[in-house]
């Protein structure tokens, strides 16, 4: 078992249940922070009124992103694709444009910039993921090969 669980007083089933609870708790916290930031921004609140929530949201987001990419993990249900990046960037662009609906040319510019930025960031993260995942797989294959050679000797 991983070294993180060495001093755990839980059995494997309890450990899995706790991981699920933490998973849902994280997503509830992330979603709640996102909703509060978006609502406050949409109501025209000053940035300093919701800056704390925004900082926590961004720190957690960047931390999870870095940890996931370092571990060579993208998602449980999907792999990174250009089509998925296009779709996610389109959703972000629509939301960003909708937040600036009062001035159509500005809304279109914000939506276009958001699409380009989101698509570029997702593709960069996908490239990092693929490189890291390949490196980890090669390392694991080498470890297995070394183990087999040691067992044959």
Describe the structure.
- The structure is a single chain.
- Helices cover 80% and strands 0% of the residues.
- The chain is built from four helices and no strands.
- Helix 1 runs antiparallel to helix 2 (47-71) and helix 3 (82-98) runs antiparallel to helix 4 (104-152).
- The two termini are 27 Å apart.
Q: Find the structural class using helix and strand composition.
A: mainly alpha
What is the CA-CA span between the terminal residues?
27 Å
Number of H- or I-type helical stretches: 4
What is the chain-wise order of helices and strands? Answer: HHHH
List low-pLDDT spans: none
- Tell how many strands the DSSP assignment holds: 0
How much strand content do the residues show?
Answer: under 5%
Characteristics:
single chain, 153 residues, mainly alpha, 4 helices, 80% helix, 0% strand
């Amino acid at each position: 078992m991983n070294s993180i669980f060495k001093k755990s007083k839980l059995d494997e089933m309890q450990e899995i249940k706790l991981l699920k609870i933490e998973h849902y708790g994280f997503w509830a916290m992330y979603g709640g922070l996102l909703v509060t930031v978006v609502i406050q921004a949409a109501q025209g609140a000053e940035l300093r009124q919701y800056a704390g929530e925004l900082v926590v949201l961004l720190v957690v987001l960047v931390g999870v992103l870095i940890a996931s990419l370092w571990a060579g993990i993208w998602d449980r249900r999907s792999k990174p694709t250009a089509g998925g990046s296009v779709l996610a960037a389109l959703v972000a662009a629509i939301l960003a444009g909708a937040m600036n609906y009062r001035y159509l040319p500005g809304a279109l510019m914000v939506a276009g910039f958001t699409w380009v930025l989101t698509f570029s960031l997702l593709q960069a993260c996908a490239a990092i993921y693929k490189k890291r995942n390949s490196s980890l797989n090669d390392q694991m294959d080498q470890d297995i090969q070394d183990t087999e050679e040691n067992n044959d000797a």
